TrEMBL record:
Organism: Candida glabrata (strain ATCC 2001 / BCRC 20586 / JCM 3761 / NBRC 0622 / NRRL Y-65 / CBS 138) (Yeast)
Protein name per UniProt: Bud site selection protein RAX2
Transmembrane segments: 1096-1123
UniProt KW keywords: Membrane, Transmembrane, Transmembrane helix
Residue ranges annotated for the Rax2-like C-terminal domain, each copy included: 851-1051
One GO cellular component term noted in the UniProt record for this chain: cellular bud scar
Record PANTHER family: BUD SITE SELECTION PROTEIN RAX2
Domain Rax2-like second: 208-373
Stretches assigned to the Rax2-like third domain: 386-535
A biological process from GO: intracellular protein localization
Domain of life: Eukaryota
Length: 1156
């Protein structure tokens, strides 16, 4: 259709500071070139091959957690909120073929954290509850799409307060569930061969006490003692021994403790094994009464002075006689404490729980010659968390116990008066980061708890006048919910306790204490103090205790469970099968903290397992009885991880080399992403848009993996992404808002070719382009302005020697004379400028001869005369709007005795014709809009007259005249006039330029300006081939007041030059054309050769991939796929916002895939 062969290098030019350029390639594209008009809506968007289609509006309060591809043409939507009247927590199936929504579940599931598609079966995991025929299950449920039925899995779920984070398929086709759970709800399928192994596992899982950190304790021993080994016992090593059958160790605590029990590891060295011992409390030096579970008789017994320790051999043999879990573990003291034993240690509970400062262990007898221990560990039911992490540090660095610790803000904390129980901070309000501390409270056992915050008295450090108010907030670590908040005054004279929480806890929590304000308004520097948080356990969950008592029937887990669907079959209507305890189940118990929240990712046939506390394991093989693994210890908090091409994305709040990041990439080594985490990142997903691989964090920060830097929104591309999912056919579904105005040009001018390519070019770094004209096959001339200086420059950037103080625009060039005609303009006057480019001389500048407004100049070369048209008048000679200027003798004269007057907007030659447009009066005939003068016969024809129509410009297309003003287009075909309605849809138009770029037999107009169409949005160029309309391109400029100039860059000198002489008279025609229709008329001419009929546009639909688009400039034919599929079933149909033929509402993915 388009033919740029007449233009230099087959290219046209847009001249100006262009920011973005965008071909209009498909209907609906305009929906993404401006920001959403509604601040209360997101959008459900289809994307493929750089094609964006708006499918539906989404309320901004919707939280889209998952978009999962299903089958060839569906997506599963999951989250919080409502779409099309359906709660996302019911899990919605979006069918792209029928463009419909269908809820998967009858009732809401809860918070789904993982969705895994296994052919026709879909597994949903998370913090969910599902009821199946009166039987409730938690954390996981399955849906069969073939039967449209949902059910619990054979094991029911993972019990109360459990959650599933990940569901993946293993190489052996088993499914792996990971999350935070400790048991199965239905253990009837558990293989009996697993129970003995479970006795040992359950002992670790059922620990109800809090192990006391002995890192800051001091020790006294009568002989050899390795303190580090003693407080973190290795059952294969001896950490203390004393020669003879008697020995003493004293542990001095850094603070007063109330103990619940002690775990004692006898030495593995046979000659040094202790047979009897006693414990002495200091102060008071009283012998403590103890309770223990006898490994031989399995009875509860008591002792004081002579408490028994059994040899390792005896314990190992006794373990072989265990038949039930109660043989190795018992709850005592109203179920507040439990006591256990195994082949390595024995536990002894304190009958009287008294506050003590030191504990003395006395070995009073030996089985053989000497006495020794691998170590001991001490437990409390309630426990403190110190603001100094040195006192919270676990005895064993790799302990699986849930740790408690603190995290301080980075500004200047210090101890006071050598008291390590609290810290202080001097803070100037409103300067820098507020002082804060976060206490991470490890909860091993579900139950009822009370938390007290201890505030040291201000009399102790003389800070009563500067103490302030702190804000104390308690959070649930599993979901971030606030459990309570209070303002606490710190100006207490003496030590005080404030209750900050009381209630049931099922998992770990955190307490944040932050400076809020001063108490006295005249306070300068404020003193903030933080003390101990006392965690008091009131009672243990009865369900937890019941699980431990009945533990011999259950499978003990720690966040990892491997499930084999192939193990289960229906036999005569009954489900049969078995569940085995696997090495992966054991991996969770053996390697992660108890109660850990675990994530799983399958990447490149390697399994990655990570927990919230920073441990990430890479498992290379699952064959055999062990799991080869590599541990990557990350410091900080992990909230999730997923696989991308570059490696494993791990996000949360992760410290690396002294800096905290929101995310890192793990691929053999750790690569941090330049995202500083002020707060822990809670959610992230991956999406590929416009050729870039993007990672989105917390719906706000976008990291471009392609450029490896944070994506910054711009005026031409703005992304607000909430979630995305893509299927194997590269169909992507997104929720958010997208503004995509096309390619960034970089504030330069643009070369556009007819084959659909374009490239930026620069004439000057900062100067403004005012006009351009074609000179010859190798050069064009450009007019530029820089402030008050105006000048000419050639296309090779050669600057010509003249300057002016106002804008100079070239209007004609005579190649034979090398004569350039230009108009110099300023706010209130115009004048002509004529330059001989051969001699580089201004040959006849009109100097001080000024006129009101010059619009056009043409050249009668034979007469060395320019005809000047515009809105002006001269008295000598008498000229109104039209005047002759002889540039050889610098004389002005009237044209045709001033018989043609008025406001001349344009003058052009067409072979033997000269055409003048504007608002003219000819020989007393007024309101003439277009006049033709035959330069051979001197005959005059009035082509257009109408008292309301003025043409700004016109072009000649064979026997047609195409004229326009800023709002309307008119076409004259022989004797008939018609006005064109762009797109025939009421488009608001601002027309700057029209050029013909078709072949002689097939003209095609490019109409340039700004067009606001109901169908296609705002575009800047359209194509009209006298049959159909086509949107062409859109541009954005740096300054909205500076519209780029459209420059054809081709020889149009025949419009401005003629060899005919200036006519000395005219012959008035006896008739003239009928008047043109008004701008609102819809009449069309039916005369050939170019039939003008109702305009229409055939657009590129969704089904055309950009890679296969037939560029408008090459083919002139753009194919649309318009479909209207029937909709069956009980689906809710998407209601689109567009009233017209919206491509997204009619195109099925099958058709899309077929074309792609």
């Amino acid at each position: 259709m388009l033919n740029f062969s007449s233009s230099r290098n087959n290219e046209i030019q847009l001249l100006g500071s262009i920011e973005t350029f965008n071909y209009y390639n498909y209907q609906g594209q305009q929906n993404f070139t401006t920001a959403s008009s509604s601040q209360n809506e997101l959008e459900l968007i289809y994307y493929s091959n750089n094609t964006l289609l708006r499918l539906d509006a989404v309320p901004t309060d919707v939280e889209m957690r998952h978009i999962i591809p299903f089958m060839d043409d569906c997506f599963i939507l999951s989250g919080i909120g409502t779409i099309s009247g359906i709660e996302l927590s019911r899990q919605i199936l979006l069918n792209l073929t029928q463009l419909s929504y269908q809820p998967i579940f009858e009732k809401e599931l809860g918070m789904v954290k993982s969705i895994f598609v296994d052919n026709e079966v879909v597994y949903f995991g998370g913090d969910i509850t599902y009821n199946n025929n009166g039987v409730s299950g938690r954390s996981v449920v399955q849906w069969n799409s073939t039967t449209n039925s949902s059910s619990l899995l054979p094991f029911g779920g993972f019990g109360s307060n459990s959650t599933v984070n990940s569901i993946i398929r293993l190489e052996n086709n088993n499914l792996l569930f990971t999350g935070q759970f400790a048991k199965l709800e239905n253990n009837s399928f558990v293989s009996k061969t697993n129970r003995t192994r479970n006795f040992s596992i359950s002992m670790e899982d059922s620990e109800v006490g809090q192990q006391i950190s002995l890192r800051q304790a001091t020790w006294n021993a009568n002989s050899n003692l390795d303190v580090d080994a003693f407080i973190c016992p290795n059952s294969d090593q001896q950490a203390w021994y004393s020669e003879g059958s008697y020995g003493v160790i004293t542990c001095n605590f850094p603070n007063t403790l109330t103990l619940s029990k002690i775990r004692i590891y006898n030495t593995p060295i046979t000659d040094n094994q202790i047979s009897l011992f006693r414990l002495i409390a200091i102060p008071g030096n009283g012998i403590l009464n103890l309770t223990y579970l006898d490994p031989i008789s399995h009875d509860i017994k008591h002792c004081t002075e002579n408490c028994p320790l059994f040899t390792r051999e005896t314990l190992l043999n006794a373990m072989g006689n265990v038949t039930q879990e109660s043989d190795v573990i018992r709850f005592i003291n109203n179920n507040s404490t439990n006591i256990k034993w195994n082949e390595y240690y024995q536990e002894f509970a304190f009958v009287n729980q008294l506050p003590i400062t030191s504990l003395q262990f006395v070995a009073s007898n030996s089985y053989y010659q000497n006495v020794g221990l691998s170590g001991f560990q001490i437990y409390q039911d309630s426990f403190p968390i110190f603001p100094n992490n040195s006192f919270n540090e676990p005895n064993c660095p790799s302990s699986n116990d849930i740790a408690s610790y603190v995290k301080l803000s980075g500004n200047g904390w210090f101890t006071v008066a050598n008291d390590n129980s609290y810290l202080a901070n001097s803070y100037i309000p409103n300067q820098g980061t507020k002082p804060s501390i976060t206490y991470f409270v490890g909860i091993n056992v579900p139950g009822e708890y009370v938390l007290n915050l201890v505030t040291p008295g201000c009399d102790k450090d003389n800070t009563c006048s500067t103490r302030g108010i702190v804000n104390v907030t308690t959070f649930d670590n599993s979901n971030g919910n606030i459990l309570g908040s209070a303002l606490i005054y710190q100006n207490n004279n003496n030590l005080k306790y404030d209750q900050i929480f009381a209630g049931v806890l099922n998992n770990s929590i955190s307490v944040q204490v932050e400076y809020y304000s001063g108490i006295n308004t005249n306070t300068g520097t404020a003193t903030v103090v933080v003390g101990v948080v006392d965690v008091v356990r009131v009672s243990i969950s009865s369900e937890f205790i019941s699980d431990q008592i009945d533990g011999d029937r259950s499978l003990h887990l720690n966040g990892i469970f491997e499930y084999s669907p192939s193990n289960f079959t229906f036999d005569n209507g009954y489900l049969t099968g078995k569940i085995d305890y696997t090495i992966l189940d054991d991996f969770g118990v053996s390697n992660f903290n108890k109660g850990a929240s675990i994530f799983a990712v399958d990447q490149n046939q390697n399994l990655y397992l990570g927990s919230t506390n920073g441990s990430v394991y890479e498992l290379n093989s699952l064959n055999g009885s062990s799991v080869p693994s590599t541990e990557n210890n990350l410091s900080g908090l992990i909230n999730g991880m997923y696989s991308v091409e570059e490696g494993l994305v791990i996000f949360g709040s992760i410290a690396h080399r002294g800096r905290e990041y929101g995310a890192v990439i793990l691929n053999k080594s750790i690569t941090p992403l330049d995202i500083v985490a002020n707060d822990s990142i809670q959610a992230s997903f991956n999406s590929t848009l416009f050729g870039s691989n993007l990672l989105v964090f917390d719906n706000s920060t976008i990291f471009n993996m392609t450029s490896f830097m944070v994506f910054e929104n711009t005026s031409y591309r703005n992304l607000d992404l909430r979630n995305a999912g893509k299927n194997s056919n590269d169909d992507m579904l997104l929720v958010g808002n997208i503004v995509n105005k096309g390619s960034a040009i970089g504030n330069e001018s643009l070369l556009i070719s007819s084959n659909g390519t374009y490239s930026p070019f620069s004439l000057s770094d900062n100067d403004t382009i005012e006009g351009a004209i074609y000179l010859n096959d190798t050069k064009a001339l450009y007019s530029l302005s820089s402030g008050n200086v105006n000048y000419f420059q050639l296309s090779d950037k050669q600057r010509l020697p003249w300057t002016w103080q106002s804008t100079v625009v070239p209007v004609f060039y005579s190649n034979g004379q090398q004569l350039l005609g230009a108009i110099q303009e300023n706010s209130n006057k115009s004048q002509i400028v004529l330059i001989d480019l051969f001699s580089s001389q201004v040959i006849n500048d009109t100097g001080n001869l000024t006129m009101h407004k010059i619009n056009a100049i043409v050249n009668f070369a034979s007469n060395a005369t320019a005809l000047v048209g515009g809105d002006f008048s001269l008295s000598n000679p008498a000229c109104v709007g039209l005047c002759l200027y002889n540039y050889n003798n610098s004389n002005w004269s009237s044209f045709l005795n001033n018989s043609i007057t008025g406001n001349i907007s344009q003058i052009k030659f067409n072979d033997t014709q000269m055409l003048l447009s504007g608002k003219l009066e000819v020989n007393k005939t007024a309101d003439i809009n277009l006049l033709s003068i035959n330069l051979t016969s001197n005959k005059q024809d009035i082509l257009l007259y109408n008292n309301s129509v003025v043409l700004d410009d016109f072009i000649l297309v064979r026997n047609l005249v195409v004229g326009w003003n800023s709002t309307d287009i008119f076409i004259r075909n022989v004797t008939q006039w018609s006005n064109l309605n762009i797109f025939d849809d009421g488009t608001n138009a601002t027309i700057n330029r029209i050029e013909n770029f078709g072949a002689d037999s097939n003209p095609a107009l490019i109409i340039y300006g700004q067009f606001d169409s109901m169908k296609y949005g705002t575009i800047n160029a359209v194509i009209y081939d006298f049959n159909s309309w086509y949107p062409y391109f859109e541009v954005d400029v740096v300054s909205q007041t500076a519209t780029p100039l459209f420059f054809a860059d081709r020889d149009q000198s025949s419009y401005g030059n003629t060899r005919h002489v200036v006519p000395d008279h005219i012959i008035v025609s006896s008739s003239h054309s009928s008047s043109a229709p008004s701008s609102s008329s819809s009449h069309k001419t039916n005369e050939k050769p170019y039939k003008i009929r109702r305009g229409f546009v055939v657009l590129i639909g969704l089904a055309l991939a950009l890679a296969t688009l037939i560029v408008l400039g090459i083919t002139g034919v753009v194919i649309a796929l318009l479909f209207n599929p029937s909709v069956n079933g009980d689906y809710d149909i998407i209601k689109t916002n567009d009233s017209d033929n919206f491509a997204g509402s009619n195109i099925t993915p099958e058709k899309l895939i077929r074309v792609l």
